[in-house]
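Per reviewer request, we include the raw input and output of the structure prediction for the construct analysed in the revised manuscript.
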Amino acid sequence: MNSTIQFRQRGTVTFPAELRKKYRIRTGDTYHLVDLDGVFILTPMKPMVPELAEEIERLILEAGVSTEDLLLSLREERARYVAETYGDYEKENE
């Protein structure tokens, strides 16, 4: 299918309705534009947060780790980082 599009003020482009329908393009969809020496390629950008959240949840379940375990480990890691980076702040300020 060949179509002609026109750039309007502020770079606005209207895609033909049949392409929007065919590819289920909706208002607010985001696309990545690749410029290959004047040949433009649009690829849809899928939100990755839901996929990442599912993957993290799967890994946590496989490892048998609880949310409490993760939070405790985070606190310990943060305390270690602060101590290594800034020294023992509490002892210095007593």
